[in-house]
């Protein structure tokens, strides 16, 4: 596969792929947070505490809002997160990291969307009162067309050059950064978890 014709889904091996923590109940999310807090990983988001949980839910909801605005209908459920191509620094978020590479051609247009930078910036874009974690909008953000925009794959391929996204990714990677170093991908096909469970038991 070429660098731009596949996505990589990163996940915690102990839980398996194609999961979204926001599908859990409040008590289940708290149980997960208590279990993962203090775990020795490259960057532990759960160590942030309640602000992370609140941010995570709100950012997820705003991404769904963006999806409905784009397609005119609600998705089947919450997305599973991945990245365009590969950015293995992401493995540092997990104790036992695993990844699955999937061809973009496996998905219908509305089953796979993309955003740059990742959806963390939607908190600022929509002026939410949730904690603004991980990525804050720059002062000149309104001059960049890609902020707040949800792309289909064909739209993204054009935007990588016309909107300067490829150049921004290169700049962030050269600075050894994190956010801004990749294009986030969202898998909206909820059947993938069931298929994986049937295959792997």
Quick rundown:
The chain is built from six helices and five strands, in the order E-H-H-E-E-E-H-H-H-E-H. It has 201 residues and is an alpha+beta fold.
- Helical content band: 25-40%
What's the helix count? 6
Distance between the termini: 28 Å
User: Strand content of the residues, in percent?
Assistant: 5-15%
Which strand order spans the largest sheet, edge to edge or round the barrel? Answer: 3-1-2-5-4
Based on DSSP secondary structure assignment, what is the total number of beta strands?
A: 5
Given the helix and strand composition, which structural class is it? alpha+beta
Estimated radius of gyration: 16 Å
Could you report the average pLDDT, rounded to the nearest whole number? Answer: 87
Chain oligomer state: single chain
Q: How would you characterize the largest beta sheet?
A: 5 strands, antiparallel
**Poorly predicted spans:** none
Shape: globular
- Return the string of H and E elements: EHHEEEHHHEH
Would you kindly provide a written description of the structure presented here, covering whatever features stand out?
This protein has 201 residues and is of the alpha+beta class. The chain is built from six helices and five strands. The chain has helices at residues 26-36, 50-71, 122-125, 153-162, 165-174, 191-200, and strands spanning 6-12, 80-84, 97-103, 112-115, 184-187. A five-stranded antiparallel sheet has the order 3-1-2-5-4, with no helix packed on it. The longest helix is centred in the first third of the chain and has 22 residues, at 50-71. The relative contact order is 0.20. The model has no long low-confidence stretch (mean pLDDT 87).
